[in-house]
Amino acid sequence: MSFSRRSFFSLVAGAGGLSVLRxxxxxxxxxxxxxxxxxxxxxxxxxxxxxxxxxxxxDALAAIDHQIRPALKQKKYVVIKVNNVSTINxxxxxxxxxxxxxxxxxxxxxxxxxxxxxxxxxxxMEGFRNFGYTxxxxxxxxxxxxxxxxxxxxxxxPLIDYDLHLQPVRLAARLLDPDAFIICAGILKTHNTVVATxxxxxxxxxxxxxxxxxxxxxxxxKRKYHTGIRQTHYNMLLTAQKLRPHWGVALLDGFxxxxxxxxxxxxxxxxxxxxxxxxxxxxxxxxxxxxxxNPAWLGxxxxxxxxxxxxxxxxxxxxxxxxxxxxxKKYRMHQDIDRELEWMGEMKDLPPKLG
Length: 355
Fold this sequence. Notes:
Blueprint: H1 5-12, H2 17-26, E1 43-49, H3 53-63, H4 65-72, E2 77-81, H5 96-106, E3 114-118, H6 124-130, H7 133-139, E4 143-147, H8 148-151, E5 154-160, E6 166-172, E7 180-190, E8 196-197, H9 199-206, H10 229-243, E9 247-259, E10 267-269, E11 273-277, H11 280-290, H12 299-306, E12 317-321, H13 324-327, H14 337-340
Parallel strand pairs: 1-12, 2-3, 2-7, 3-4, 7-9
Antiparallel strand pairs: 1-11, 5-6, 7-8, 9-10, 9-11
Helix pairs in contact: 3-5, 9-10, 10-12
């Protein structure tokens, strides 16, 4: 835009003339760019502390019953997604008493079928037997067990590999079933790649399948997530976006958490808490705080919060029951924590600039 000397003085004459000129030269103010998403309402997270795992699990769910019940009534059956990263180490896996506590909450309220599911990195049914899930199913005619790998029903979504090329991954169809009310039975554990694993990690890495027992050739879509420090967090976000519409309630068992070299080889921490929320992101934020971990360290959860999959901002979370401060214990991190946190920094392996 050009101005003559006369038009310049005409423009700036009078009150506010200089600000008008600046506006015409600079153009309209540009608001900060944000992701186009609907505001997320405030979230409620219950923390219950006690000396009986089964009881505090039931009590944590009952504390938010008014939020669970309306969504539960819209579904035809319940899926309990357990965490069996190991099929032999109980500390690394969902405890039978956790499942019993969930059933103590559920069975008096609904008459619908309940299915306990997992796609373990090993033999899923071996874990079910070792951890006592088969006894629970035998004692409750409405409860069944499903190995998602053997069921072999899936939907395909695209991830990125280390070279940022697209690669397909198979996600268990049952975790995408609109008729299922999905309960995540997660655990408070440190992790060897993404700092900590709670409810979102349990759902996201429990969804990709691998070969069924005795199937050949062998294949494993879970490995497609471990493609790089940054790529893993982004692939988890992509999967969480796909799964999120089907999530019911997150139940985090912190009765005995795992610190150090989790998620499979760490040592126990007697936190003696259970955490529950219909917002999985908020549940994990409270879980991370309860473990004394810097919430900025978990890339995938920060990404989920930024895209509105739930509230990761503690200021938007209402905690009922115990306070975070009263239950917080400082968990020892994995020995590779410094390398895990490199996702936060500048990439050093960038190609030459073009254009």
